[in-house]
Amino acid sequence: MNPTSSALPGWSHVYSGKVRDLYVPEQASGLDDAAAVLVVASDRVSAFDHVLEPGIPGKGELLTTLSLWWFDQLADVPNHLLADHRLDGERVVDDIPDAVAGRAMLVKPLDMYPIECVVRGYLTGSGWSEYQATGRVCGIPLPAGLANGDRLPEPIYTPAWKAPLGQHDENISFERTVELVGQDAATQLRALSLAIYTEAAAIAERRGVIIADTKFEFGRDRGTETITLADEVLTSDSSRYWDAAAWAAGATPEERMASFDKQIVRDWLAANWDKNGVPPELPANIVERTAARYRELLERLTGE
Ligand code: ATP
Ligand code: MG
């Protein structure tokens, strides 16, 4: 049992990732025979694969609200929300314990693909690093002369292998995803990822927000075998969100990439930690600025 997840009557804790805790109904023996999974988002924040202290107040609820809002926007894409899970003013179904209401989703357990389906519409982060070294990202050649934060000629699919807890995810080529999951699934994962990104980026852009890049996770439905959108979707943890007006007007990379995600945390950590040993505690002003930017993103997107 992870010390940061708490006991929920009627549910057994089965897994804790860096940010989320998974529970199954207590009569199930694990994820394999569970009819439902409760995915609870905590306020934990991770950067460079380390969970930091303290958490960001309200982050778990924000991630959950954003995911639910996006699942609703992308209604034509099969997703893992259980059928009775609707956004009817009241956020969630009766089965969700009060203790985690607002930051939990009730989902169908899927056989997850071991691939982080990353799509980039803009060049930055690990994509920018790889491009500077090789002129390519995940094997995809890009035009010469691109700068950090530039928009790409078209969105690209740059998958990563989902490393077990404690190891670092690794950028891989499309061909490697074929070896991992087969030609058919690999092709579908790429097509779905690009289509969802394109649809979502257009929705966000109408609200003055750029989705620079994002990561999707998919699983296979155990009954129908349908490839199903799972995990969190288009949250500020799984995506880089920038202010579109700042990007258009900005002269420097810093001005162009005014972010609504945890880049504030990453930047502070990169400047104050040599990545050895335990990361330092986040100062209160960094926590507050991050929380405020998260709230602003939600307002911009959902209008709430
Ligand atoms: P991180 O995302 O920070 O790299 P993580 O992926 O290990 O870490 P979390 O995101 O905190 O951990 O936990 C969510 C876990 O639940 C992930 O392992 C994800 O693959 C899994 N998951 C999401 N949706 C489903 C689903 N419908 N069925 C089974 N597992 C799922
Ligand atoms: Mg995850």
From TrEMBL:
Matching entries from NCBIfam families are given as:
PRK13961.1 (NF010568), purC (TIGR00081)
Q: Which gene encodes it?
A: purC
Q: Which residues form the SAICAR synthetase/ADE2 N-terminal domain?
A: 14-272
Query: So what does this thing catalyse?
Result: 5-amino-1-(5-phospho-D-ribosyl)imidazole-4-carboxylate + L-aspartate + ATP = (2S)-2-[5-amino-1-(5-phospho-beta-D-ribosyl)imidazole-4-carboxamido]succinate + ADP + phosphate + 2 H(+)
Which CDD domains does the UniProt entry name for this protein? SAICAR_synt_Sc (cd01414)
Query: Per UniProt, which keywords does this protein have?
Result: ATP-binding, Ligase, Nucleotide-binding, Purine biosynthesis
A biological process (GO) annotation for this entry? 'de novo' IMP biosynthetic process
Q: Which domain of life is it from?
A: Bacteria
Give me the segments passing through the membrane: none
Name the pathway it acts in: Purine metabolism; IMP biosynthesis via de novo pathway; 5-amino-1-(5-phospho-D-ribosyl)imidazole-4-carboxamide from 5-amino-1-(5-phospho-D-ribosyl)imidazole-4-carboxylate: step 1/2
PANTHER family given in the database record? PHOSPHORIBOSYLAMINOIMIDAZOLE-SUCCINOCARBOXAMIDE SYNTHASE
A single cellular component GO annotation: cytoplasm
Question: What is the protein's given name?
Answer: Phosphoribosylaminoimidazole-succinocarboxamide synthase
Statement: the UniProt record of this protein carries the keyword rRNA processing: no
User: Record keywords: Ligase included?
Assistant: yes
Pfam families per the record?
SAICAR_synt (PF01259)
What family classification does the UniProt entry report for this protein? Belongs to the SAICAR synthetase family.
GO molecular function per UniProt: ATP binding; phosphoribosylaminoimidazolesuccinocarboxamide synthase activity
Lineage of producing organism: Bacteria, Bacillati, Actinomycetota, Actinomycetes, Micrococcales
Q: Which SUPFAM superfamilies match?
A: SAICAR synthase-like
Q: What is this enzyme's EC?
A: 6.3.2.6
Organism equals Leifsonia tongyongensis
